[in-house]
Design goal:
CATH topology of the largest domain: TIM Barrel
Largest sheet: 7 strands, parallel
Number of strands: 7
CATH architecture of the largest domain: Alpha-Beta Barrel
Helix content: 40-55%
CATH class of the largest domain: Alpha Beta
Distance between the termini: 92 Å
Order of helices and strands: HEHEHEHEHEHHEHEHHH
Strand content: 5-15%
Shape: globular
CATH superfamily of the largest domain: Glycoside hydrolase/deacetylase
Structural class: alpha/beta
Radius of gyration: 26 Å
């Protein structure tokens, strides 16, 4: 009888040890799974939305107030907040104030995009002109709660000569402004212009075909800039995508958000993206400008066979849009 009891006790101890080992193994596996998931989250490409200009007119039969609200609704449905870089020339009248107030109320940051949208690669647009443009729009937007001292260059052109580039940057620094860099650039403005043209002059417009082209174009450019960025930095940075305040954003933004998610991108608030240390980098290329990633790639000298100048332009999309009848 004692032998039987001893054998039973021995078996219980063995089973207990085995269960403990199995529990430890499961715990280790669980922790490993959690770590793997965390790494995957960190490795996801990340994008945020920024918008330029601030149009206050009706577009192709859509009232200004309606198409503007469509953009705000698309962002609100996803609890996303953009940075809105506005030109000041049309923000002093009733419609302009309405536009800024609506974006401000929805907690989108209001930033500076000059007063008259000049190209600073033009020699006539001097350092003095730059300062006037900066301060004129600053005086218009600084009354809004969501006002931030970020500046975006029109056409992403920051000057051709070292003297001009450094002079402009010193004015930004003197006025406590940061460069509101783009890391993903595209030609949404060109798709928009062709869409409006067809909607104005044709009885039937294939908006679904325009939407498909638009989505493919934006995702292709996002993938391109993210691949260059990853090679440069060894990680996925927090991207800022340049879109324009226009009809394509109104009609297609909801679909664009869905497409980014489908492609595995995480979408965050733009002001959060600007906390990424990549935005403290100051490229030394001349002429200065384009996307920040383009400039850093150009500066590295390692991507000459993959870069073009200008980085984005209608000429690159025209033939395909012609072929598709868009």
């Amino acid at each position: 009888m004692n032998k039987i009891k001893s054998l039973a006790l021995f078996l219980v101890l063995i089973l207990g040890f085995a269960c403990e080992q199995d529990t430890n193994t499961k715990t280790e596996r669980s922790e490993a799974t959690k770590t793997t998931k965390a790494i995957k989250v960190l490795e996801k490409p990340t994008v945020s939305f920024t918008f330029d200009d601030g149009i206050t007119k009706d577009l192709a039969g859509y009232k200004f107030e309606d198409w503007n609200q469509m953009i705000l609704n698309a962002l609100d449905e996803e609890d996303l907040h953009a940075v809105f870089f506005v030109s000041g020339f049309n923000k002093m009248d009733r419609k302009g104030k309405y536009l800024l107030s609506e974006w401000d109320k929805q907690e989108h940051k209001i930033a500076n995009h000059t007063f008259s949208h000049p190209n600073f690669n033009d020699k006539n647009n001097t350092i003095k002109v730059f300062e006037q443009e900066l301060l004129q729009t600053d005086s218009i937007i600084n009354q809004y709660e969501q006002y931030v001292k970020y500046f975006r260059f029109p056409y992403l052109k920051e000057g051709k000569t070292k003297e001009k580039i450094e002079g402009i940057r010193s004015i930004l620094e003197k006025n406590n402004y940061r460069n509101g860099h783009v890391t993903i650039d595209a030609s949404d403005w060109y798709v928009n212009s062709r869409l409006i043209n067809q909607m104005t002059y044709r009885k039937k417009v294939d908006t679904l075909a325009f939407e498909a082209f638009y989505l493919d174009h934006i995702i292709e450019r996002a993938t391109f800039y993210d691949s260059i960025s990853y090679e440069l930095n060894g990680r996925h940075i927090k991207h800022t995508l340049l879109l324009h305040h226009n009809l394509t954003s109104a009609l297609f933004l909801k679909s664009l958000i869905k497409r980014f998610k489908l492609e595995g991108w995480e979408i965050i608030d733009a002001i959060e993206a600007y906390k990424d240390p990549i935005y403290t980098r100051v490229p030394t290329v001349e002429p200065a400008g384009e996307s920040l990633i383009w400039s850093l790639a150009k500066e590295s000298g390692k991507f000459e066979n993959r870069l073009r100048y200008p980085a984005e332009d209608s000429r690159y999309e025209k033939d395909e849009m012609d072929r598709l009848g868009l």
